[in-house]
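Field reference: sequence -> structure
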Amino acid sequence: MIEEAQDFLQESIALHELVAPIEEADYARPTQFKAWRVDDVLQHLHFFNQAAVYSLQEPARFHEFYAGLNAKREGGLSSVAATDELLGGVRGRALLKLWREGFEQTAAAFASADPRQRVIWVGPDMSARSSISARLMETWAHGQAIYDLLGVVRRNTDRIRSVAMMGINTYEWSFRNRGESVPLPKPHVVLTASSGAVWRWNDPSDEHRIEGLAEEFCQVVTQVRNIKDTRLVVKGESATRWMAQAQCFAGPVQPPPLPGTRGPRPHKSS
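Structure field:
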């Protein structure tokens, strides 16, 4: 049993409830993330949720599925355009329904899997637990663009601990992916969750330290906020360098958003 599958499901449902009331035309509105539309975000989430299920259950089909995306990108299409073609151009409420059915299937598939099962992916193999945690992270991170677009301040829960953990576990990656040496010591990270719980990682230190809200740390490591747009307290060279370029997801180097470029439009309650 993989508990993170339930967290993924609940995070997906929360995003679904946010999107469900919007008008059909709103699916074409651009977000602050690379001007991706709401449609683009949901297509991306659905495509890679399906890819994760294939990696778990049908590895050969995963290779075929992902090869189709690569072929279109090598043919000159952007990832957004390629995904749109592979999904038959589904958009709007039809896409919302397809994504909902897909994330429910994804959660069910991983909930009953062996957490230690190795699954293939576009990068190194990983455990099934890590795979569904990555789906949770992507849903949370890409979903933030929609929350911001709609001016809704998200009410996070302690299920984002998995996102924070991915940030902690990719400390070295954030530097090595850029061809840089990894600075030591690793900073002591002290985060306060929505419930009031305090999460701690790495050796205690007052000189090398990151402290603040868990949701803001998660926003930085997933690159949905610039560190300067948070209230995180950052001390020491290693902590400062990390927070300036943290990247908890695989793939080529991506720069964080510029200060002030990502955030909610007129505030509403979630």
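Note: The two ends are 30 Å apart (CA to CA).
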